[in-house]
Amino acid sequence: MTKPPIHSSDVAFTAAVKAIQSKRGSRASYARMEQAGGWETEIDESLAAFIAEQRSFFLATASADGQPYVQHRGGPPGFLHVRDPRTLAFADFRGNRQYITLGNLSENPKVQLFLIDYARRARVKIWGTARAVEDERLLAELSHPGYDARPERAIVVDVVAWDANCPQHIPQRLEAADVARALAERDETIARLEEELRALRAR
Predict the structure, then answer these.
(1) Lowest mean pLDDT across 6-10, 40-44, 136-140, 148-152
(2) How confident is the model at residue 3 (pLDDT cuts 50, 70, 90)?
(3) Model pTM score
(4) Of 153, 107, 97, 98, which is closest to residue 129 (Cα–Cα)?
(5) Nearest-CA neighbor of 72 among 108, 113, 131, 121?
(6) Handedness of CA 97, 146, 176, 51 (dihedral sign)
(7) Residue 54: how many other CB atoms lie within 10 Å
(8) Are residues 39 and 163 in contact, defined by beta-carbon separation less than 8 angstroms?
(9) Which of 193, 130, 137, 186 shows the shortest CA–CA distance to 159?
(10) In this structure, how many other beta carbons lie within 10 angstroms of the beta carbon of residue 197?
(11) Per-residue pLDDT tens over the stretch 171-183
């Protein structure tokens, strides 16, 4: 029988992990973190704002025998909804119909969401349990009119813990739409300044 976690970070820091931390010299600092309260277990305003801006995330599941699977999920900003401080949900759009995630969730509800913002070099890991929900009303709330994708069901995630990592080793990359918008603004500014310059010269 699995022992209930003592600290929120025990969702990741198993006995084996802690043993290696002790061997490698990092256990003391993480033990202090645990004594101070450990990882957050509720979504605060800062995390909610971060989630609302994301266009994609990675969803990790595993089969009953532990075979891992990671799938990318994408959509318009805000497609991952914060329902309350302990619950996330998103519309599950139709894909290649392999249904590996659904199969895994049917026998093992444990998940991890990995969100990364390359422009700001920020990342967040969220642990929880998830379930597929066939509810038209909920799906309508989660869907985005105008987004070219067919939602088939809702995935609801009950948050267990989350942790924000340092930016070390994250390459800085920008969204193509953001770059295009910045270039358009630059071109508009150049055009306006050139017009003002011509007007000054004409005087």
Answers:
(1) 148-152
(2) low
(3) 0.83
(4) 107
(5) 113
(6) negative
(7) 19
(8) yes
(9) 130
(10) 10
(11) 788 778 888 888 9
